[in-house]
Amino acid sequence: MTSVKGWAGALLGVAATTVLFALFGQLNPGWVWLGAVAMAPWLAAVERVSSARGAVALGVLLSVAFTAAVFGWFPGAIAAYSRAPVWLCWGVFLFIAPVLELQFLTAAWVRWYARRQVGEAPRLAWVPPVLTALAYVGTEWFTPKLFAETLGHGLYASETLRQGADVAGAPGLTLVLLLINECVVSVAQGLASRRSLRLGPVVLAVVLAVSGWGYGRVRQGQVRAAVHAAPSLVVGAVQANITNIEKLAAEQGTYEVVRNILDTHYAMSDALLRSAPLDLLVWPETVYPTTFGTPKSEDGGALDDEIRAWVAERGVPLVFGTYDLEGEREFNAAMFLGPSATGELAQAAYRKTMLFPLTEWVPDAVDTPALRAWLPWTGRWKRGPGPRLVDFRLNGGRVLKVAPLICYEALFPSYVAAEVRQGADLLLTLSNDSWFSGTPAPRLHLMHAAFRSIETRTAQVRVTNSGISAFIDPAGTWTSELEDNQRASTVMRVPAADRLSSLAGAWGDWLGPVALVLSVVLGVWIRRRGVQRSGAVPV
Protein backbone atom coordinates (compact mmCIF):
# COMPACT_ATOMS: atom_id res chain seq x y z
CA MET A 1 0.00 0.00 0.00
CA THR A 2 2.29 2.73 -1.24
CA SER A 3 0.05 4.63 -3.68
CA VAL A 4 -1.97 7.70 -2.83
CA LYS A 5 -5.12 5.73 -3.66
CA GLY A 6 -4.06 2.96 -1.30
CA TRP A 7 -3.47 5.33 1.60
CA ALA A 8 -6.72 7.16 0.89
CA GLY A 9 -8.56 3.85 1.18
CA ALA A 10 -6.72 3.06 4.41
CA LEU A 11 -7.59 6.43 5.93
CA LEU A 12 -11.19 5.89 4.93
CA GLY A 13 -11.12 2.55 6.76
CA VAL A 14 -9.74 4.22 9.90
CA ALA A 15 -12.39 6.94 9.71
CA ALA A 16 -15.23 4.46 9.16
CA THR A 17 -14.20 2.29 12.11
CA THR A 18 -13.84 5.35 14.33
CA VAL A 19 -17.37 6.54 13.49
CA LEU A 20 -18.80 3.07 14.05
CA PHE A 21 -16.97 2.81 17.38
CA ALA A 22 -18.39 6.16 18.48
CA LEU A 23 -21.96 5.08 17.63
CA PHE A 24 -21.58 1.61 19.12
CA GLY A 25 -20.15 3.09 22.33
CA GLN A 26 -23.27 5.15 22.97
CA LEU A 27 -24.92 2.04 24.52
CA ASN A 28 -28.04 2.55 22.41
CA PRO A 29 -30.00 -0.69 21.81
CA GLY A 30 -30.58 0.40 18.22
CA TRP A 31 -26.84 0.42 17.52
CA VAL A 32 -25.93 -2.95 19.08
CA TRP A 33 -25.63 -4.58 15.63
CA LEU A 34 -22.78 -2.18 14.76
CA GLY A 35 -20.49 -4.28 16.94
CA ALA A 36 -20.55 -6.95 14.23
CA VAL A 37 -19.09 -4.59 11.62
CA ALA A 38 -17.33 -1.79 13.54
CA MET A 39 -13.82 -3.23 13.13
CA ALA A 40 -14.35 -4.49 9.58
CA PRO A 41 -13.32 -1.32 7.64
CA TRP A 42 -10.05 -1.03 9.56
CA LEU A 43 -9.31 -4.76 9.39
CA ALA A 44 -9.85 -4.64 5.62
CA ALA A 45 -7.42 -1.73 5.38
CA VAL A 46 -4.79 -3.59 7.40
CA GLU A 47 -5.30 -6.62 5.15
CA ARG A 48 -4.06 -4.57 2.18
CA VAL A 49 -0.90 -3.34 3.92
CA SER A 50 2.32 -4.65 2.42
CA SER A 51 4.79 -3.69 5.16
CA ALA A 52 5.10 -3.92 8.92
CA ARG A 53 5.62 -0.18 9.08
CA GLY A 54 2.38 0.46 7.21
CA ALA A 55 0.47 -1.91 9.52
CA VAL A 56 1.77 -0.22 12.66
CA ALA A 57 0.99 3.18 11.14
CA LEU A 58 -2.65 2.16 10.72
CA GLY A 59 -2.66 0.98 14.33
CA VAL A 60 -1.32 4.34 15.50
CA LEU A 61 -3.85 6.24 13.41
CA LEU A 62 -6.79 4.27 14.79
CA SER A 63 -5.54 4.60 18.37
CA VAL A 64 -5.41 8.38 18.07
CA ALA A 65 -8.72 8.67 16.20
CA PHE A 66 -10.46 6.30 18.61
CA THR A 67 -9.13 8.15 21.66
CA ALA A 68 -10.24 11.53 20.31
CA ALA A 69 -13.69 10.34 19.25
CA VAL A 70 -14.64 8.14 22.21
CA PHE A 71 -12.80 9.86 25.08
CA GLY A 72 -12.74 13.43 23.84
CA TRP A 73 -14.34 14.55 27.11
CA PHE A 74 -11.30 13.50 29.17
CA PRO A 75 -8.79 16.30 28.35
CA GLY A 76 -11.32 18.97 29.37
CA ALA A 77 -11.98 17.18 32.67
CA ILE A 78 -8.26 16.88 33.39
CA ALA A 79 -7.73 20.54 32.49
CA ALA A 80 -10.44 21.52 35.00
CA TYR A 81 -8.86 19.31 37.67
CA SER A 82 -5.21 20.26 37.15
CA ARG A 83 -5.79 23.82 35.85
CA ALA A 84 -3.45 23.03 32.98
CA PRO A 85 -4.16 24.45 29.49
CA VAL A 86 -6.70 22.41 27.55
CA TRP A 87 -4.41 22.28 24.51
CA LEU A 88 -1.67 20.72 26.65
CA CYS A 89 -4.03 18.10 28.06
CA TRP A 90 -5.19 17.25 24.55
CA GLY A 91 -1.62 17.03 23.30
CA VAL A 92 -0.48 14.69 26.06
CA PHE A 93 -3.62 12.56 25.78
CA LEU A 94 -3.25 12.03 22.04
CA PHE A 95 0.50 11.50 22.36
CA ILE A 96 0.01 8.59 24.76
CA ALA A 97 -2.98 7.20 22.82
CA PRO A 98 -0.88 4.49 21.09
CA VAL A 99 0.14 3.21 24.52
CA LEU A 100 -3.36 3.37 26.00
CA GLU A 101 -4.81 1.64 22.92
CA LEU A 102 -1.88 -0.63 22.17
CA GLN A 103 -4.20 -3.41 21.00
CA PHE A 104 -4.65 -1.66 17.65
CA LEU A 105 -0.92 -1.59 16.98
CA THR A 106 -0.42 -5.17 18.12
CA ALA A 107 -3.36 -6.49 16.10
CA ALA A 108 -2.21 -4.68 12.95
CA TRP A 109 1.39 -5.93 13.18
CA VAL A 110 0.34 -9.49 14.08
CA ARG A 111 -2.02 -9.59 11.13
CA TRP A 112 0.75 -8.50 8.74
CA TYR A 113 3.13 -11.04 10.29
CA ALA A 114 0.61 -13.90 10.05
CA ARG A 115 -0.19 -13.18 6.40
CA ARG A 116 3.51 -13.09 5.60
CA GLN A 117 4.09 -16.45 7.28
CA VAL A 118 1.14 -18.40 5.88
CA GLY A 119 1.27 -16.91 2.40
CA GLU A 120 -1.49 -18.11 0.09
CA ALA A 121 -1.99 -21.50 1.74
CA PRO A 122 -5.79 -22.01 1.72
CA ARG A 123 -5.73 -24.41 4.65
CA LEU A 124 -4.14 -21.73 6.85
CA ALA A 125 -6.42 -18.87 5.84
CA TRP A 126 -7.94 -18.99 9.34
CA VAL A 127 -4.65 -18.15 11.06
CA PRO A 128 -4.39 -14.37 10.45
CA PRO A 129 -7.95 -13.60 11.64
CA VAL A 130 -7.73 -15.85 14.71
CA LEU A 131 -4.25 -14.64 15.63
CA THR A 132 -5.37 -11.01 15.23
CA ALA A 133 -8.33 -11.52 17.57
CA LEU A 134 -6.25 -13.34 20.19
CA ALA A 135 -3.49 -10.72 20.10
CA TYR A 136 -6.07 -7.94 20.40
CA VAL A 137 -7.68 -9.42 23.52
CA GLY A 138 -4.35 -10.45 25.03
CA THR A 139 -2.87 -6.98 24.53
CA GLU A 140 -5.85 -5.30 26.17
CA TRP A 141 -5.24 -7.46 29.23
CA PHE A 142 -1.73 -6.19 29.92
CA THR A 143 -2.01 -2.66 28.49
CA PRO A 144 -2.18 0.12 31.14
CA LYS A 145 -5.64 1.31 30.13
CA LEU A 146 -7.04 4.24 32.10
CA PHE A 147 -10.65 3.27 31.45
CA ALA A 148 -10.35 -0.52 30.96
CA GLU A 149 -12.59 -0.23 27.89
CA THR A 150 -13.07 -2.98 25.35
CA LEU A 151 -15.26 -3.57 22.31
CA GLY A 152 -17.55 -5.96 24.19
CA HIS A 153 -18.79 -3.20 26.48
CA GLY A 154 -20.98 -1.95 23.64
CA LEU A 155 -23.13 -5.07 24.00
CA TYR A 156 -24.34 -3.83 27.38
CA ALA A 157 -27.21 -2.22 25.48
CA SER A 158 -28.58 -5.71 24.77
CA GLU A 159 -29.99 -7.29 27.93
CA THR A 160 -29.66 -10.72 26.33
CA LEU A 161 -26.20 -10.54 24.74
CA ARG A 162 -24.50 -8.96 27.76
CA GLN A 163 -25.29 -12.05 29.85
CA GLY A 164 -22.41 -13.81 28.08
CA ALA A 165 -20.02 -11.72 30.17
CA ASP A 166 -20.36 -14.20 33.03
CA VAL A 167 -18.19 -16.62 31.03
CA ALA A 168 -15.13 -14.50 30.24
CA GLY A 169 -16.17 -10.97 31.09
CA ALA A 170 -16.44 -8.19 28.54
CA PRO A 171 -13.21 -9.44 26.85
CA GLY A 172 -15.06 -12.63 25.95
CA LEU A 173 -17.72 -10.57 24.19
CA THR A 174 -14.91 -8.67 22.45
CA LEU A 175 -13.39 -11.89 21.14
CA VAL A 176 -16.72 -13.02 19.71
CA LEU A 177 -17.30 -9.63 18.07
CA LEU A 178 -13.81 -9.62 16.56
CA LEU A 179 -14.34 -13.05 15.03
CA ILE A 180 -17.68 -11.95 13.58
CA ASN A 181 -15.99 -8.85 12.14
CA GLU A 182 -13.37 -11.12 10.58
CA CYS A 183 -16.16 -13.13 8.96
CA VAL A 184 -17.62 -9.92 7.55
CA VAL A 185 -14.22 -8.96 6.09
CA SER A 186 -13.79 -12.39 4.51
CA VAL A 187 -17.24 -12.30 2.90
CA ALA A 188 -16.70 -8.73 1.66
CA GLN A 189 -13.33 -9.68 0.14
CA GLY A 190 -14.90 -12.61 -1.69
CA LEU A 191 -17.66 -10.44 -3.10
CA ALA A 192 -15.23 -7.69 -4.08
CA SER A 193 -13.07 -10.15 -6.01
CA ARG A 194 -16.21 -11.38 -7.82
CA ARG A 195 -15.83 -14.89 -6.51
CA SER A 196 -18.67 -16.98 -5.20
CA LEU A 197 -20.07 -16.21 -1.76
CA ARG A 198 -17.90 -17.75 0.98
CA LEU A 199 -20.33 -19.81 3.01
CA GLY A 200 -17.84 -20.78 5.74
CA PRO A 201 -17.52 -17.28 7.23
CA VAL A 202 -21.27 -16.72 6.93
CA VAL A 203 -22.02 -19.94 8.81
CA LEU A 204 -19.43 -19.15 11.51
CA ALA A 205 -20.80 -15.63 12.05
CA VAL A 206 -24.36 -16.97 12.35
CA VAL A 207 -23.27 -19.72 14.77
CA LEU A 208 -21.40 -17.21 16.97
CA ALA A 209 -24.31 -14.76 16.99
CA VAL A 210 -26.99 -17.39 17.65
CA SER A 211 -24.89 -19.09 20.34
CA GLY A 212 -24.36 -15.78 22.14
CA TRP A 213 -28.04 -14.93 21.96
CA GLY A 214 -29.11 -18.42 23.03
CA TYR A 215 -26.73 -18.50 26.00
CA GLY A 216 -27.94 -15.06 27.05
CA ARG A 217 -31.57 -16.16 26.97
CA VAL A 218 -30.83 -19.21 29.11
CA ARG A 219 -28.89 -17.18 31.68
CA GLN A 220 -31.58 -14.50 31.75
CA GLY A 221 -34.11 -17.13 32.72
CA GLN A 222 -31.82 -18.58 35.39
CA VAL A 223 -31.17 -15.17 36.93
CA ARG A 224 -34.85 -14.30 37.01
CA ALA A 225 -35.64 -17.62 38.68
CA ALA A 226 -32.90 -17.07 41.27
CA VAL A 227 -34.05 -13.58 42.28
CA HIS A 228 -36.94 -13.48 44.75
CA ALA A 229 -39.63 -10.82 44.75
CA ALA A 230 -39.37 -9.82 48.40
CA PRO A 231 -36.54 -7.46 49.38
CA SER A 232 -33.96 -8.79 51.78
CA LEU A 233 -32.33 -5.39 52.29
CA VAL A 234 -33.67 -1.84 52.13
CA VAL A 235 -30.99 0.78 51.49
CA GLY A 236 -31.26 4.55 51.59
CA ALA A 237 -28.89 6.24 49.11
CA VAL A 238 -28.03 9.95 49.34
CA GLN A 239 -26.68 11.88 46.35
CA ALA A 240 -26.27 15.47 47.56
CA ASN A 241 -24.48 16.81 44.44
CA ILE A 242 -22.02 18.91 46.44
CA THR A 243 -18.96 19.25 44.21
CA ASN A 244 -15.76 21.30 43.86
CA ILE A 245 -15.08 20.84 47.55
CA GLU A 246 -11.48 22.09 47.29
CA LYS A 247 -12.64 25.33 45.67
CA LEU A 248 -15.40 25.78 48.24
CA ALA A 249 -12.95 25.15 51.08
CA ALA A 250 -10.59 27.82 49.73
CA GLU A 251 -13.46 30.32 49.58
CA GLN A 252 -15.42 29.47 52.74
CA GLY A 253 -13.00 27.56 54.94
CA THR A 254 -12.76 23.81 55.42
CA TYR A 255 -14.91 23.65 58.53
CA GLU A 256 -17.80 25.55 56.95
CA VAL A 257 -17.75 23.28 53.90
CA VAL A 258 -17.70 20.09 55.99
CA ARG A 259 -20.46 21.54 58.17
CA ASN A 260 -22.63 22.15 55.10
CA ILE A 261 -21.92 18.67 53.68
CA LEU A 262 -22.89 16.95 56.92
CA ASP A 263 -26.00 19.06 57.50
CA THR A 264 -27.17 18.36 53.95
CA HIS A 265 -26.64 14.62 54.32
CA TYR A 266 -28.30 14.56 57.73
CA ALA A 267 -31.38 16.32 56.34
CA MET A 268 -31.64 14.14 53.22
CA SER A 269 -31.12 10.98 55.28
CA ASP A 270 -33.79 11.98 57.80
CA ALA A 271 -36.21 12.50 54.91
CA LEU A 272 -35.44 8.98 53.68
CA LEU A 273 -35.96 7.54 57.16
CA ARG A 274 -39.37 9.20 57.32
CA SER A 275 -40.33 7.73 53.94
CA ALA A 276 -39.55 4.08 54.68
CA PRO A 277 -37.94 1.78 57.26
CA LEU A 278 -34.29 1.32 56.25
CA ASP A 279 -31.76 -1.39 57.00
CA LEU A 280 -28.81 0.72 55.86
CA LEU A 281 -27.88 4.27 54.85
CA VAL A 282 -25.13 4.92 52.30
CA TRP A 283 -23.31 8.18 51.54
CA PRO A 284 -20.80 8.47 48.67
CA GLU A 285 -17.01 8.47 48.35
CA THR A 286 -15.06 11.12 50.36
CA VAL A 287 -18.31 12.72 51.49
CA TYR A 288 -16.51 13.40 54.80
CA PRO A 289 -13.35 14.97 53.35
CA THR A 290 -11.06 14.46 56.31
CA THR A 291 -9.88 11.61 58.49
CA PHE A 292 -12.49 9.84 60.58
CA GLY A 293 -11.51 8.28 63.90
CA THR A 294 -8.08 9.93 63.91
CA PRO A 295 -8.98 13.64 63.92
CA LYS A 296 -6.42 16.25 62.94
CA SER A 297 -7.99 18.95 65.13
CA GLU A 298 -10.45 19.50 67.97
CA ASP A 299 -13.10 20.49 65.45
CA GLY A 300 -12.45 17.24 63.57
CA GLY A 301 -12.85 15.23 66.75
CA ALA A 302 -16.13 16.98 67.52
CA LEU A 303 -17.47 16.24 64.04
CA ASP A 304 -16.45 12.58 64.37
CA ASP A 305 -18.40 12.34 67.63
CA GLU A 306 -21.35 14.11 66.02
CA ILE A 307 -21.55 11.54 63.21
CA ARG A 308 -21.39 8.67 65.72
CA ALA A 309 -24.11 10.26 67.84
CA TRP A 310 -26.31 10.86 64.79
CA VAL A 311 -26.02 7.19 63.75
CA ALA A 312 -26.69 5.96 67.27
CA GLU A 313 -29.74 8.21 67.66
CA ARG A 314 -31.29 7.14 64.32
CA GLY A 315 -30.52 3.50 64.95
CA VAL A 316 -29.66 2.82 61.30
CA PRO A 317 -26.19 1.61 60.22
CA LEU A 318 -24.28 4.00 57.96
CA VAL A 319 -21.57 3.54 55.32
CA PHE A 320 -19.82 6.66 54.07
CA GLY A 321 -16.67 7.73 52.26
CA THR A 322 -13.89 9.37 54.25
CA TYR A 323 -10.13 9.21 54.86
CA ASP A 324 -8.40 6.69 57.10
CA LEU A 325 -5.07 7.38 58.80
CA GLU A 326 -2.36 4.99 59.93
CA GLY A 327 0.76 6.77 61.17
CA GLU A 328 1.62 9.14 58.35
CA ARG A 329 -0.12 7.03 55.71
CA GLU A 330 -3.51 8.27 54.56
CA PHE A 331 -6.06 6.16 52.69
CA ASN A 332 -9.23 6.77 50.72
CA ALA A 333 -11.69 4.71 52.74
CA ALA A 334 -15.24 3.52 53.25
CA MET A 335 -16.27 3.71 56.91
CA PHE A 336 -18.84 1.29 58.34
CA LEU A 337 -20.72 2.38 61.47
CA GLY A 338 -23.24 -0.04 62.94
CA PRO A 339 -24.25 -2.04 65.99
CA SER A 340 -21.86 -4.55 67.53
CA ALA A 341 -22.61 -7.85 69.23
CA THR A 342 -22.62 -5.99 72.56
CA GLY A 343 -25.04 -3.33 71.30
CA GLU A 344 -22.48 -0.55 71.16
CA LEU A 345 -21.59 1.30 67.97
CA ALA A 346 -18.91 -0.58 66.02
CA GLN A 347 -16.57 0.89 63.42
CA ALA A 348 -14.77 -0.79 60.51
CA ALA A 349 -12.89 0.67 57.57
CA TYR A 350 -12.21 -0.54 54.05
CA ARG A 351 -9.21 1.06 52.32
CA LYS A 352 -9.21 1.67 48.60
CA THR A 353 -6.48 -0.26 46.75
CA MET A 354 -6.93 0.55 43.06
CA LEU A 355 -6.12 4.26 42.95
CA PHE A 356 -6.31 6.45 39.85
CA PRO A 357 -2.77 7.26 38.66
CA LEU A 358 -1.38 10.67 39.67
CA THR A 359 -4.67 12.24 40.77
CA GLU A 360 -4.92 9.87 43.77
CA TRP A 361 -1.63 8.04 43.93
CA VAL A 362 1.98 8.34 42.81
CA PRO A 363 4.27 5.27 42.84
CA ASP A 364 7.06 5.63 45.41
CA ALA A 365 9.67 5.06 42.70
CA VAL A 366 8.76 8.34 40.95
CA ASP A 367 7.40 10.31 43.90
CA THR A 368 9.93 13.13 44.23
CA PRO A 369 9.78 16.79 45.33
CA ALA A 370 10.45 17.79 41.72
CA LEU A 371 7.39 15.84 40.53
CA ARG A 372 5.24 17.40 43.26
CA ALA A 373 6.44 20.87 42.31
CA TRP A 374 5.69 20.24 38.64
CA LEU A 375 2.34 18.55 39.28
CA PRO A 376 1.07 20.05 42.57
CA TRP A 377 -2.34 18.41 42.17
CA THR A 378 -0.99 14.86 42.40
CA GLY A 379 -2.54 12.70 45.10
CA ARG A 380 -0.93 11.48 48.31
CA TRP A 381 -3.10 8.51 49.23
CA LYS A 382 -1.55 5.11 49.79
CA ARG A 383 -2.85 1.83 48.41
CA GLY A 384 -4.99 -0.40 50.58
CA PRO A 385 -4.26 -4.08 51.30
CA GLY A 386 -6.33 -5.47 48.42
CA PRO A 387 -9.74 -7.09 47.98
CA ARG A 388 -11.44 -7.86 51.26
CA LEU A 389 -14.88 -8.48 52.64
CA VAL A 390 -16.49 -6.48 55.45
CA ASP A 391 -18.80 -8.37 57.80
CA PHE A 392 -21.26 -5.61 58.70
CA ARG A 393 -23.77 -6.16 61.47
CA LEU A 394 -27.25 -4.73 60.89
CA ASN A 395 -29.99 -4.13 63.42
CA GLY A 396 -31.46 -7.37 64.72
CA GLY A 397 -28.11 -9.15 64.67
CA ARG A 398 -28.04 -9.99 60.96
CA VAL A 399 -24.54 -9.92 59.46
CA LEU A 400 -24.28 -8.61 55.91
CA LYS A 401 -21.18 -9.69 53.98
CA VAL A 402 -20.26 -6.64 51.91
CA ALA A 403 -17.78 -6.46 49.04
CA PRO A 404 -16.83 -2.75 49.12
CA LEU A 405 -15.61 -0.91 46.04
CA ILE A 406 -14.50 2.70 45.86
CA CYS A 407 -14.86 4.44 42.50
CA TYR A 408 -12.04 3.26 40.18
CA GLU A 409 -12.03 -0.24 41.68
CA ALA A 410 -15.26 -1.07 39.82
CA LEU A 411 -13.21 -1.22 36.58
CA PHE A 412 -11.22 -4.31 37.61
CA PRO A 413 -12.99 -7.67 37.11
CA SER A 414 -10.45 -9.84 38.95
CA TYR A 415 -10.42 -7.51 41.95
CA VAL A 416 -14.20 -7.62 42.27
CA ALA A 417 -14.32 -11.38 41.69
CA ALA A 418 -11.74 -11.89 44.46
CA GLU A 419 -14.00 -10.04 46.90
CA VAL A 420 -17.11 -11.95 45.87
CA ARG A 421 -15.35 -15.30 46.21
CA GLN A 422 -14.95 -14.53 49.90
CA GLY A 423 -18.72 -14.95 50.24
CA ALA A 424 -20.17 -11.52 49.48
CA ASP A 425 -23.92 -10.93 49.74
CA LEU A 426 -23.70 -7.51 48.10
CA LEU A 427 -21.40 -5.30 46.07
CA LEU A 428 -21.36 -1.81 47.60
CA THR A 429 -19.78 0.92 45.45
CA LEU A 430 -19.05 4.44 46.67
CA SER A 431 -17.94 6.83 43.95
CA ASN A 432 -17.11 10.46 43.19
CA ASP A 433 -17.63 11.20 39.49
CA SER A 434 -18.07 14.95 39.89
CA TRP A 435 -14.96 15.80 37.87
CA PHE A 436 -16.63 14.20 34.85
CA SER A 437 -20.13 15.58 35.39
CA GLY A 438 -21.79 16.63 32.15
CA THR A 439 -19.78 14.12 30.09
CA PRO A 440 -20.47 10.50 29.08
CA ALA A 441 -18.12 9.34 31.87
CA PRO A 442 -20.70 8.85 34.69
CA ARG A 443 -22.82 6.57 32.51
CA LEU A 444 -19.75 4.68 31.24
CA HIS A 445 -18.62 4.19 34.83
CA LEU A 446 -22.05 2.86 35.74
CA MET A 447 -21.87 0.47 32.78
CA HIS A 448 -18.51 -0.87 34.03
CA ALA A 449 -20.03 -1.43 37.47
CA ALA A 450 -22.96 -3.28 35.88
CA PHE A 451 -20.57 -5.70 34.18
CA ARG A 452 -19.12 -6.59 37.60
CA SER A 453 -22.60 -7.64 38.73
CA ILE A 454 -23.10 -9.73 35.58
CA GLU A 455 -19.72 -11.43 35.91
CA THR A 456 -20.19 -12.33 39.57
CA ARG A 457 -24.01 -12.60 39.52
CA THR A 458 -24.12 -10.35 42.57
CA ALA A 459 -26.45 -7.43 43.24
CA GLN A 460 -24.86 -4.02 43.68
CA VAL A 461 -25.73 -0.78 45.41
CA ARG A 462 -23.89 2.15 43.83
CA VAL A 463 -23.93 5.59 45.46
CA THR A 464 -22.15 8.63 44.03
CA ASN A 465 -21.90 12.25 45.12
CA SER A 466 -23.17 13.76 41.85
CA GLY A 467 -24.52 10.82 39.81
CA ILE A 468 -25.16 8.30 38.57
CA SER A 469 -26.35 6.36 41.63
CA ALA A 470 -28.32 3.17 41.02
CA PHE A 471 -29.20 -0.32 42.14
CA ILE A 472 -27.83 -3.02 39.81
CA ASP A 473 -29.31 -6.51 39.81
CA PRO A 474 -27.41 -9.76 39.00
CA ALA A 475 -28.45 -9.46 35.34
CA GLY A 476 -26.75 -6.06 35.09
CA THR A 477 -29.97 -4.05 34.91
CA TRP A 478 -29.91 -0.80 36.84
CA THR A 479 -32.92 0.75 38.60
CA SER A 480 -33.53 3.41 41.28
CA GLU A 481 -31.40 5.63 39.08
CA LEU A 482 -30.35 9.13 40.24
CA GLU A 483 -29.13 11.05 37.22
CA ASP A 484 -25.91 13.00 36.76
CA ASN A 485 -25.72 16.49 38.34
CA GLN A 486 -28.86 15.96 40.42
CA ARG A 487 -29.47 16.33 44.16
CA ALA A 488 -31.72 13.49 45.19
CA SER A 489 -32.08 10.47 47.40
CA THR A 490 -33.76 7.14 46.86
CA VAL A 491 -34.71 3.90 48.54
CA MET A 492 -33.13 0.83 46.94
CA ARG A 493 -34.83 -2.47 47.65
CA VAL A 494 -32.35 -5.30 47.24
CA PRO A 495 -34.15 -8.62 46.63
CA ALA A 496 -32.98 -11.89 48.07
CA ALA A 497 -31.36 -14.15 45.48
CA ASP A 498 -30.02 -17.67 45.27
CA ARG A 499 -26.30 -17.82 44.54
CA LEU A 500 -25.50 -18.44 40.85
CA SER A 501 -22.03 -19.57 39.90
CA SER A 502 -20.16 -18.20 36.88
CA LEU A 503 -16.81 -18.79 35.26
CA ALA A 504 -15.94 -15.08 35.31
CA GLY A 505 -16.81 -14.92 38.99
CA ALA A 506 -14.66 -17.95 39.78
CA TRP A 507 -11.65 -17.08 37.61
CA GLY A 508 -11.85 -13.31 37.20
CA ASP A 509 -10.30 -11.81 34.07
CA TRP A 510 -8.98 -15.16 32.81
CA LEU A 511 -9.37 -14.75 29.05
CA GLY A 512 -6.75 -12.03 28.61
CA PRO A 513 -3.71 -14.06 29.71
CA VAL A 514 -5.01 -17.18 27.95
CA ALA A 515 -5.46 -15.24 24.69
CA LEU A 516 -1.99 -13.77 25.03
CA VAL A 517 -0.38 -17.17 25.53
CA LEU A 518 -2.35 -18.71 22.66
CA SER A 519 -1.36 -15.87 20.33
CA VAL A 520 2.33 -16.38 21.16
CA VAL A 521 2.04 -20.16 20.65
CA LEU A 522 0.22 -19.73 17.35
CA GLY A 523 2.70 -17.09 16.20
CA VAL A 524 5.67 -19.33 16.97
CA TRP A 525 3.99 -22.28 15.24
CA ILE A 526 3.44 -20.46 11.96
CA ARG A 527 6.96 -19.06 12.18
CA ARG A 528 8.46 -22.54 12.54
CA ARG A 529 6.19 -23.89 9.84
CA GLY A 530 7.24 -21.09 7.50
CA VAL A 531 10.92 -21.77 8.17
CA GLN A 532 10.50 -25.50 7.58
CA ARG A 533 8.57 -24.92 4.36
CA SER A 534 11.26 -22.62 2.96
CA GLY A 535 14.10 -24.85 4.12
CA ALA A 536 15.83 -21.91 5.79
CA VAL A 537 17.93 -22.26 8.93
CA PRO A 538 16.48 -20.23 11.80
CA VAL A 539 18.81 -17.75 13.45
Automatic annotation (TrEMBL):
Residues 238-496 form the CN hydrolase domain. Pathway: Protein modification; lipoprotein biosynthesis (N-acyl transfer). The keyword Transmembrane applies. PROSITE patterns: CN_HYDROLASE (PS50263). It is found in: Cell membrane. It comes from the Bacteria. Its EC number is 2.3.1.269. InterPro entries: Apolipo_AcylTrfase, C-N_Hydrolase, C-N_Hydrolase_sf, LNT_N. The chain crosses the membrane at residues 7-24, 30-46, 58-81, 87-112, 124-147, 167-187, 199-216, 507-526. Keywords: Acyltransferase, Cell membrane, Membrane, Transferase, Transmembrane, Transmembrane helix. It is a multi-pass membrane protein. Its main location: membrane. Belongs to the CN hydrolase family. Apolipoprotein N-acyltransferase subfamily. HAMAP family: Lnt (MF_01148). Catalyzes the phospholipid dependent N-acylation of the N-terminal cysteine of apolipoprotein, the last step in lipoprotein maturation. This is Apolipoprotein N-acyltransferase. It comes from Corallococcus caeni. The gene is lnt.
